[in-house]
Write a structure and sequence with these properties.
single chain; 129 residues; Helix Hairpins; binds adenosine-5'-triphosphate
Length: 129
């Protein structure tokens, strides 16, 4: 992806740092299909939680689970990009380990999110049927 911003020096102020952080978020959403799925699932869960009028502690668990998934996907994308930069897409065993382990971190976070979602939303939803 061609970027207009070719800065390689340190950021000069907080506003510039924030601008690059937001650009990173936009980039990961544009580049990573899995991130778009995570965001869609997160919005769905937040919508259901709002509809069910969850308690504050329920929200804390749900938001923790959501942010863990999003954070691990961000870290996974960092690993993928650094590995691609270093290997220039040639097969390297350490590259495979790094990418697979980073993907495992996302899997762990997603598993945690599913458990939290079932524990918190499950009883509410069961009552409706
Ligand atoms: N340079 C490499 N050397 C060895 N194996 C690699 C290399 N690049 C990728 N792989 C293997 O291919 C898999 C897919 O790599 P790829 O970079 O396409 O990830 P991805 O499809 O973007 O991952 P995700 O599904 O998390 O978005 C990795 O999990 C790894 O097992």
């Amino acid at each position: 992806m061609a970027l207009k911003d070719k800065q390689t020096t340190k950021n000069h102020n907080l506003a510039q740092s924030m601008q690059h952080a937001v650009a990173g978020l936009v980039t990961v959403v544009q580049m990573e299909r899995n991130m778009r799925w995570h965001l869609l699932a997160s919005l769905l869960v937040i919508g259901v939680g709002w509809w069910l009028q969850l308690t504050r502690s329920d929200w804390l668990w749900l938001l923790l689970a959501i942010f863990m998934v999003l954070q691990s996907e961000l870290a996974n994308t960092v690993v993928e990009n650094v590995v691609d930069l270093l290997t220039t897409h040639h097969y390297v065993s350490a590259a495979k380990y790094a990418k697979d382990i980073a993907a495992a971190a996302v899997l762990m976070a997603a598993g945690f999110a599913i458990i939290v979602g079932l524990l918190i939303l499950g009883p509410h939803l069961l009552k409706l049927f």
